[in-house]
Amino acid sequence: MNHSPLLEVRNLCLGFPNRNSYKEILKDLSFTVRRGEILGLIGNSGSGKSITSLAISDLLPKEAEITGGEIIFEGNDLLKMKSRDRRKLLGRDIGIVFQEPKTALDPLMRIGRNLDEILTAHGITDKAERRSKILDMLRKVDFDNPEEICERFPHQLSGGQRQRILIAGAALLSPKLLLCDEVTSALDTVTTVEVLDLLRSLCFELKITILFISHDLSAVENFCDRVMVMKDGEIIDSDNTYDILHTPKNAFTAKLLESAKLDARALDLTTADCDYSKSPVMTVRDLCVGYGKKIIIPSLDMEMYPKEILGLIGSSGCGKTTLSKAICKLLPSRGEINIKGGRPGTVFQDPVSCLNPSHTVLWHMKEAVRSTGRKPDSGEINRILEEVGLDQEFLSRYPSELSGGQRQRVAIGMCLIAEPQLIIADEPFSSLDATTAAEILKLLAKINRERGMAILLISHNLHIVRALCKRVIIMGRGKIDEVGMTKEILDDPKSESGIRLLTAENKLHGRQM
Questions:
Q1: What distance in Å separates the CA atoms of residue 453 and residue 474, rounded to the nearest whole number?
Q2: What are phi and psi of 318, to 5 degrees?
Q3: 124 class by beta-carbon count within 10 Å (0-12 exposed, 13-18 middle, 19+ buried)
Q4: What b-and-e string marks burial along 203-213, b requiring 16 or more CB atoms within 10 Å of the CB?
Q5: What's the rounded Cα separation, in Å, for the pair 40 and 203?
Q6: What is the Cα–Cα distance from 196 to 189, expressed in whole angstroms?
Q7: Side-chain half-sphere of 334: how many Cα atoms within 13 Å?
Q8: What is the pTM of this model?
Q9: How does pLDDT run across 183-220, given as a tens digit for each residue?
Q10: pLDDT score at 460
């Protein structure tokens, strides 16, 4: 490995000014990224990790203001370059892969067109050459049907497939530096292992240097050569990966590592008693779901019982989210779906895209009430908000003024005020740091215990499923491969998809089967 610096950030200062104050985000930030290395960047929520990647890639929001410092890339200060010249660097020399691929891809354009625009923007005019580069890169990121993938829209791909598309787009021009911002946080364990292996192979094959931002310490440990720790806009610790994660010398680093371990079994997750002898709260029979001519779920039967928290797990692309959308009537389907009390409540993975940025929390709560045919009542709204852990002052806030955990609490509040008998929670923790995820986890357990609401919990975190769900379903390729009591299924899986999940979990956490 060539240890000469590819990128040097020197005394970078950045903040958000407004009429009355100045909110400082980065404070004399300094660090070096060496050529050919995979450098991890960890820190608590709000420490400035993502803002750092946006500053390097010139994608800062217009409100941000850089007040000092340098960003030296291959000997040139990016902050002194003309905007036009710096834009050319993005994609050609500096690539970026975001946390949520759904919002990074144009939903109205097919995958091939999304990728083609990258090459067109960088002056590759020959259509056949662009097509050849796209198909070759799709094969490199493990698509065995690149021509078919090019014709699909983003919503027709799983989360893991969309993430591989973003990686393909970022790698199309063989950049020297790839910024990866929480690229595995929304992925199941199998797909996380596959994506890390893919990034590592691209790093070696295309000689790409990677800055890897993550709150997933297992991913960092198994992927990064070196790790930096960020706190309040500064790098406060830096060392090789093993020493940082196993023998930290800095007190804050030790505390961060402890808080980053989401041990669901250590939390108070008392749930309601479920009586499986009672009639189901939801029955699904002969369900068939697809996108156009492509069938994702050919035929599926399942049931849920009153007060039950049922886990639904499976690797990326198996049909978990497709099933949840069909149950919520967000996708056309054939077959029978019978739910007591009518429409279920929904809590999605990404609360940002589920809340209208133009309206306040109060507006969202009122809309949730109106959807049931009732008139909004301020007393009821205040009680629900308190139940999900938010004060009344949050009613006047907009989604952009909320943290990820606060947005998720609003989404849960919108569920509760509609009083469903069943909640569909699709990866509600994956975009949150461990501390915030633990809070939302305890809130869902409390809702189940005190309100008796049944919850279909879709999650790639097997620790959470073990701690919260008495029964679990393993899906694979659009069908149910295994169903039964959680401990029995996860201790000794019989299906190929179940064994793959447990093997990937053990690999990611460094355990042997």
A1: 22
A2: -80, -15
A3: middle
A4: beeeebbbbbb
A5: 14
A6: 11
A7: 10
A8: 0.78
A9: 887 777 888 888 899 899 988 988 999 999 998 888 89
A10: 84
